[in-house]
Fold these 2 entries.
Entry 1:
Amino acid sequence: KTNPKGFPAYVIIIQSEVTPTFSMASLELSEETNGIPPEIPLISSKSAEDGNQVPSQGSGGACVGAARASEPSMPAYYFVKWITWKEKKTAIITQSENGPCPLIAIMNILLLRWKVKLPAQTEVVTTEELMAHLGECVLSIKPRERAEGMELNFQQNMSDAMAVLPKLSTGLDVNVRFTGVSDFEYTPECIVFDLLDIPLYHGWLVDPQSPEVVSAVGKLSYNQLVEKIIEFKHSTDTSQVSEGLIAEQFLESTATQLSYHGLCELNTTAKEGELSGFFRNNHFSTMIKHKGHLYLLVTDQGFLQEESVVWESLHNVEGDGNFCDSDFRLCHPSQKPTGASQPSAQQQQQMQIDQDYLVAMSLQQQQGDAPGPMSDLELARQLQQEEYQQPQTQQHQPSAGQVLPVFPSEGNSCA
């Protein structure tokens, strides 16, 4: 067809394949299974994209791994935030609640490395544009070794990576191992990180000072551990039942998918100034180590207009870090939630702990000395221990909003 001005008009039909997504598997067994473990899905970062037209500001920045399918939708747009990174104006991609966090995390690393550059004054970018930039980066990679066997392997990896790229806009299936911060069960999706030389970390580790837990978890991946718990809980062998309960307790106590031992290992393993991917709570983030401290890039769309809010410190397992600017100086967002009520006693106590951390970190920055790799973590542990020693928290009563993984007893039906 042609419109009144003589320009051709086209109708494009877009078909969207809808794939259900899952977060941590429940350990429930229905009566119909007769004790046979159900299929256990991978821990997934897949987010049900809203297919948002231009998304509204103020949305949360988490990538949800809920068991939910999206409706067919129009291509998504994402707001671009401009920051001053190492004295250069640099773009980063922000995300709404259900943005494609693997794609955004990888693209932000490439943007901060200046491997990808967006035109000045760019305010929004589409998924297709991000995928095009990423595809160009992958195709520009050259093999490091010219040996015939290595080159054939490289070509196969390139082919696999190009096949995986479309999945980055919906999520990746990853299966962590609890033995090391860079230990994941190998999947084809990992090839993209390898080819782009992007380290991928997690902090969900077993404390080696807990031999019973080490024995119960072993070198299993998350999926294997879930299957073991289901099997051992219904065993007639009391020792297996006990081991299954220990493994179950480990998952419950590390429901944030980050342990203090994992945090220590992250700080030790990550290299100074290294940009990497960080997987936690079914979400991919961009992480960097600066002067012995770990920081996560703030991509929450709600901070789009907060130019000074660039990084958030990663110093405890609760995920309540402190905001910093692009030079890692502490800052406070000017935006405040509307209608906020007075903080509770527990919130005031946490605010005091955070303030103690701010003071200690400010003193280190004023002295100009890079702290030892473990000093920040030791401080966080000490502050956290002081918090737990307060009378208000000795009863170990869960808060109203606290949600832990459900591990029902035998005979309960699946939700």
Entry 2:
Amino acid sequence: MTEQRYMGLDVGEKTIGVAISDPLGFTAQGITVIARQSLPKDLALLKKIIADYQVTALVVGLPLSLNNTLGPQAEKVKYFVAKLQKEIPLPLEYADERFSTTLAERTLIAADVSRQKRRVVIDKMAAQIILQSFLDRMAYRAKGQTKEDVSATLTNPRP
């Protein structure tokens, strides 16, 4: 089996949430939140993480509007990613991230994480959700299954 290490990014105005997959590309783990400083500094930090973890591909959350169009924030994300790819040309996938932060917040609230702690980890967790969703889709495709196939199997398990 070929090792493929993915990096998931949740690029925001103030922070960048970063997640990394395991070497086989099965699970995602949130690793850090980068406080945005300047484009060169942000890119340098990401380049270091990419080198340290031997990342082979990027999965970047793209904040689409509810009608599936690119809004101003999505354009900013694409601009940032274009600059990153000039520095390190890795294969890239965009992933719909519309509800990743909401899901991360709900998960943290359910786990009774304090509001102060949530602010620190929410972007890292959103990046993890974006990346894990991508990895799950890849696994479904590899098995020739759709999410509906998997859902049907889970709700109607075979004896």
